[in-house]
Design a protein that fits this description.
Blueprint (H helix, E strand, L loop, with lengths): L1 E7 L3 E9 L28 E11 L5 E7 L41 E12 L2 E10 L10 H4 L9 E11 L3 E11 L6 E12 L3 E11 L5 E12 L6 E12 L9 E11 L4 E14 L17 H9 L10 E15 L2
Antiparallel strand pairs: 1-2, 2-3, 3-4, 4-5, 5-6, 6-7, 7-8, 8-9, 9-10, 10-11, 11-12, 12-13, 13-14, 14-15
């Protein structure tokens, strides 16, 4: 359950976005299989709310606006709206925003921002430009979560971040964007999150979107890579939107995802009225190359001893007893989402 409270005047806007802790996405549950554990493994008190965003912004003009507080950073197509499920057709978001199953690290999107300036300009009738420049107080990780996002207090991480996003819209139908987020103080080296995306309204009532993002110590040394695409048919989007999706994720430092995983899917969104939407989605996953993992009795991993590998074999039950082979199908999954607006 999400509750968004907004106050708005001619120049000033305030917003508070809260989420009930009855539900967690699969990418948020990081510790074991206990459903009472929230993001990053800390225990959550069911029936309470956590703050996702709380900010105020002042609009000077179209070219200059200032936002301050704690809010989702502008990165890619969906980061700023990833909690507002009525605003996108799919049931699940790309791996960029929701980490894959059995992945033992956080998603790739930047931590929440604390201060941002943004604006837009139209140098010519057929061209619109926009910019966002922001700073972030701390980085999300498995030990030091983004504090406001997960409701564990104020800043707990020594890291600092600076990010930006720039977009160009041509003819009102073709949008192209680039995003970057630079983290310092998080590790001995500087980390960069870089991304590029497009959002195109095509002839024949088709709507195509695509994104690419990487995290690493530099442009030519990425640790994590992800890219995705979506094709939607929107002739009847007021009532029905079918779509196809593709997603890829790779982490060179992760035991399971060092070779990468592909996800293919098909789905549809039914809009019954302004208050009720039902989404259905089916997808399956293909590994580029699967590691060999065998869980022995007692939860230890054979062939490579215990330690971290043994812990992975105990926790990631769905990847136990895999045989290395190219393009092996490892998981089918169907999901249904019910959305009620009040």
């Amino acid at each position: 359950l999400n509750i968004v409270l907004t106050g708005k005047s001619e120049k000033f806007t305030t917003r508070i976005n809260m989420q009930s802790q009855h539900f967690y996405s699969s990418s948020d549950i990081r510790s074991g299989s206990n459903a009472n554990y929230g993001p990053n493994g800390q225990s959550g008190q069911l029936g309470t709310f956590r703050f996702l965003e709380a900010y105020g912004e002042y609009r000077f003009n179209k070219l200059l606006n200032v936002r301050a507080g704690n809010f989702l950073s502008p990165f890619g197509l969906y980061n700023q709206i990833r909690y507002l499920t009525p605003l996108f057709a799919t049931v699940v978001l790309p791996f960029l925003y929701e980490a894959p199953e059995n992945y033992f690290d956080v998603s790739m999107y930047p931590s929440n921002a604390a201060l941002m300036v943004y604006g837009q300009a139209y140098p010519m009738r057929e061209l619109g430009l926009s910019y966002n420049v922001y700073v972030s107080p701390g980085q999300r990780d498995l030990n030091n979560a983004n504090p406001f996002d997960y409701g564990v207090g104020w800043e707990v991480s020594p890291s600092k971040g600076v990010g930006s996003r720039f977009t160009a819209t041509v003819l009102g139908k073709y949008k192209f964007g680039i995003s970057q987020f630079t983290m310092v103080g998080y590790t001995p080296r500087q980390l960069w999150t870089l991304g590029a995306d497009f959002d195109l309204y095509l002839p024949g009532d088709f709507h195509a979107q695509g994104e690419y993002a990487q995290v690493g110590s530099g442009l030519w040394n990425p640790q994590k890579i992800t890219y995705n695409g979506r094709l939607m048919y929107e002739k009847y989007k007021e009532s029905w939107t079918p779509y196809l999706i593709y997603d890829f994720f790779q982490d060179n430092n992760d035991f399971l995802y060092y070779a990468g995983q592909n996800r293919f899917g098909i789905g549809q969104a039914f809009v019954f009225n302004n208050f009720v939407t039902i989404k259905t989605e089916y997808h399956y996953h293909l590994w580029a190359t699967l590691p060999v993992v065998t869980a022995a009795s007692g939860g230890s991993a054979s062939g490579s001893g215990g330690g971290m590998l043994g812990e992975m074999a105990r926790n990631a039950s769905s990847i136990v007893s895999m045989t290395s082979s190219p393009n092996s199908k490892v998981q089918h999954m169907g999901k249904i989402s019910f959305i009620f607006l009040l």
